[in-house]
């Protein structure tokens, strides 16, 4: 990720939230830049997307810190673009920023590849989340969730993100990679280094090179071992990926994809679910009355939270979307976070409704060939965790304002202060 020094003129780090919200209605649309991370960090983005969906659902931003880009904000248009990989390419990257993450050559990964290479590499690692393997993982996830929850302080305020969301997902990541368990927090660090602004170019490069070095050593340790279902072994024994270690940037890119994919969706949906149930207490009452709603609630939490705000594509040919002509080579941002709040698709879209009938039809996992490979694993982790929560606690009470991460890509939380109330 390149260092960003220029900030938009209208909204900066010092702009109060009420001003951000007011400007959603006052700014001319040609001055809109919804990529401004301050809007996301201060949870002020919603009226901007609401106005775009209503007035200009396919919107061109001519000048941003990332250069010009198109915003796709309605559910149907997002689905159309995401499903049309012949007209919209992933090969220029999935992030809004054009850059190399502080490397002379950018890390490559299959999510940022077109066919046929994308399908070949995705197929190599997909067995780790095959139904049979997931079924075998469930008891381990339940055991770990129970251990984490039983170790929490009851009646005291603590950070749910640190003690639960990060810990459960990092333990799962360590299992998926068969990574040294005692070093598992390095996986969280590397995920944050790959997705969040803040570190200097040298700090980011140093940490990600350590990631590459660690996983290269693990590759060489396992290359002569019997095939296993961890992600490294699957790459080693995949016919089309068995030499990936010899292309360090491709290996690093795929490692970061799998680390981030296994971390951000689950981690931030765990935190977002607690926050949402506190913001909509009638839904929490509904859950207490009927815990069988948990599987559907999980889908609704993932819709409401939308852990990754967008994906980028690049137009391969002149294509009309929503009445606008997107020209070859132009950058297209599919705002999943907006599509999931589209009132034409979801009734009372801004609310968490845990028995929503179409909750699973959200866009958080994407559509088409790039649909999230680990979506079933993410859902299972959330389901199991909430089943265990409901067996222990009457209320996970949010007792302070969440601290959101500074990002326009990851819709996440650094802190969520909570207090536990046990079942009586």
Characterization of the model:
This protein has 424 residues and is of the alpha+beta class. It is 46% helix and 11% strand. The protein is built from 15 helices and 12 strands. The chain has a 5-stranded mixed β-sheet. Strands 4-12-9 form a 3-stranded antiparallel β-sheet. It has a two-stranded antiparallel sheet with strand order 6-7. Residues 1-9 have low confidence and may be disordered.
Output mean pLDDT: 88
Helix content: 40-55%
Q: How are the strands of the largest sheet arranged?
A: 1-2-8-5-3
Strand content: 5-15%
Main beta sheet, described?
Answer: 5 strands, mixed
Please give the count of helices. 15
Distance between the termini: 49 Å
Report the strand count: 12
| Element order: H for helix, E for strand | HHHEEHEHHEHHHHHHHEEEEHHEEEE
Unreliable spans: 1-9
Shape: globular
- What assembly state would you assign to the polypeptide chains in this entry? single chain
Structural class by secondary-structure content: alpha+beta
Radius of gyration, in angstroms, nearest whole number: 21 Å
Descriptive terms for the model:
single chain, 424 residues, alpha+beta, 5-stranded mixed beta sheet, 3-stranded antiparallel beta sheet, 15 helices, 11% strand, disordered N terminus
Short description:
Helices cover 46% and strands 11% of the residues.
């Amino acid at each position: 990720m390149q260092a960003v020094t220029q900030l938009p003129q209208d909204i900066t780090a010092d702009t109060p939230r009420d001003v951000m919200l007011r400007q959603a209605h006052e700014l001319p649309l040609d001055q809109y830049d919804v990529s401004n991370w301050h809007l996301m960090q201060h949870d002020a983005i919603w009226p901007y997307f609401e106005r775009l969906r209503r007035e200009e659902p396919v919107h061109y931003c001519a000048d941003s810190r990332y250069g010009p880009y198109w915003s796709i904000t309605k559910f149907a248009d997002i689905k159309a673009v995401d499903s049309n990989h012949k007209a919209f390419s992933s090969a220029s990257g999935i992030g809004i920023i054009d850059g190399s993450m502080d490397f002379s050559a950018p890390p490559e990964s299959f999510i940022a590849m077109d066919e046929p290479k994308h399908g070949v590499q995705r197929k190599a690692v997909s067995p780790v989340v095959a139904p049979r393997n997931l079924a075998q993982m469930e008891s381990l996830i339940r055991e770990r969730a129970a251990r984490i929850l039983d170790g929490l302080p009851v009646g005291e305020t603590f950070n749910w993100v640190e003690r639960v969301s990060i810990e459960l997902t990092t333990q799962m990541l360590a299992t998926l990679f068969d990574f040294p368990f005692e070093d598992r927090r390095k996986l969280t660090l590397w995920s944050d280094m790959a997705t969040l602004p803040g570190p200097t170019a040298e700090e980011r490069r140093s940490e990600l090179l350590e990631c590459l070095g660690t996983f290269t050593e693990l590759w060489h340790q396992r290359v002569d071992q019997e095939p296993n279902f961890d992600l490294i072994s699957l790459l080693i024994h995949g016919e089309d990926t068995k030499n990936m270690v010899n292309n360090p940037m491709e290996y690093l890119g795929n490692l970061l994809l799998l680390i981030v994919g296994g971390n951000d969706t689950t981690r931030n949906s765990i935190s977002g679910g607690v926050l949402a149930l506190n913001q909509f207490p009638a839904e929490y009452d509904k859950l207490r009355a009927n815990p069988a709603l948990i599987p559907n609630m999980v889908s609704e939490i993932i819709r409401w939270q939308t852990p990754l705000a967008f994906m980028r594509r690049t137009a391969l040919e002149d294509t009309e979307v929503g009445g606008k002509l997107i020209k070859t080579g132009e950058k297209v941002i599919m705002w999943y976070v907006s599509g999931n709040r589209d009132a034409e698709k979801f009734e009372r879209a801004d609310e968490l409704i845990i028995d929503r009938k179409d909750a699973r039809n959200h866009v958080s996992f994407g559509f088409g060939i790039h649909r999230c490979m680990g979506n079933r694993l993410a859902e299972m982790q959330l389901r199991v965790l909430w089943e265990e929560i409901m067996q222990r606690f009457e209320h996970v009470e949010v007792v302070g304002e969440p601290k959101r991460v500074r990002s326009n890509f990851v819709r996440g939380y650094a802190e969520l202060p909570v207090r536990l109330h046990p079942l009586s």
